[in-house]
UniProtKB/TrEMBL annotation:
<dbReference type="Pfam" id="PF00583">
    <property type="entry name" value="Acetyltransf_1"/>
</dbReference>
<dbReference type="InterPro" id="IPR000182">
    <property type="entry name" value="GNAT_dom"/>
</dbReference>
<dbReference type="InterPro" id="IPR016181">
    <property type="entry name" value="Acyl_CoA_acyltransferase"/>
</dbReference>
<keyword id="KW-0808">Transferase</keyword>
<dbReference type="InterPro" id="IPR027455">
    <property type="entry name" value="Sper_AcTfrase_N"/>
</dbReference>
<feature type="domain" description="N-acetyltransferase">
    <location>
        <begin position="5"/>
        <end position="155"/>
    </location>
</feature>
<protein>
    <submittedName>
        <fullName>Diamine N-acetyltransferase</fullName>
    </submittedName>
</protein>
<dbReference type="GO" id="GO:0016747">
    <property type="term" value="F:acyltransferase activity, transferring groups other than amino-acyl groups"/>
</dbReference>
Length: 158
């Protein structure tokens, strides 16, 4: 399936539905909740958080948050960093994750970005194979939490 999605601003009208999104329980150690993401965004404005609900029609199916065009520094990778990517457990396996990344890549290219960084917790059930399947490659570095840093060269994506 080729998922058709829209990245939508989070408003009072859709906030509760977006906050209610949950990954599969086995993934909770790898992906923070939407509520935690909002908290992280509030507590780290220097990370220049940019976030959107991911909707299929009018139905929220996921959430994405990036550091958008920040100046890298201690604890801050960038300038563009995929901070959170969450697809609700009920909507997984339908191509939404790949569709979200395709949409993000298009937005980043339009903004003049040449690469996207992300990180993930290593281990059984980690999203690393998904990211690598999309084209991300390990940089050989880890962050202060021991997460593997991955890079996607935006010119390498069709």
């Amino acid at each position: 399936m080729s998922a058709q999605i829209r990245l939508v601003e989070i408003t009072d009208a859709n906030r509760d539905a977006v906050v209610a999104l949950r990954v599969h329980p086995s993934q909770e150690r790898f992906v923070a909740s939407v509520e935690r993401s909002f908290q992280d965004a509030r507590e780290n404005p220097e990370a220049k958080p940019w976030f959107r609900a991911v909707c299929d029609g009018d139905t929220p199916v996921g959430f994405v948050m990036l550091c958008w065009d920040l100046v890298p520094g201690p604890g801050l990778l960038g300038p563009f960093f995929l901070w959170r990517l969450l697809v609700d457990a009920e909507h997984q396996g339908r191509g939404y994750g790949r569709a979200i990344l395709n949409e993000v890549v298009a937005l980043l290219r339009a903004a003049g970005a040449t690469e996207l960084l992300t990180s993930c917790v290593p281990g059984e059930g980690s999203p690393e194979p998904f990211y690598r399947g999309f084209g991300f490659v390990p940089t050989g570095e880890t962050d202060e939490d021991g997460e593997v840093i991955l890079r996607l060269e935006l010119g390498s994506r069709p």
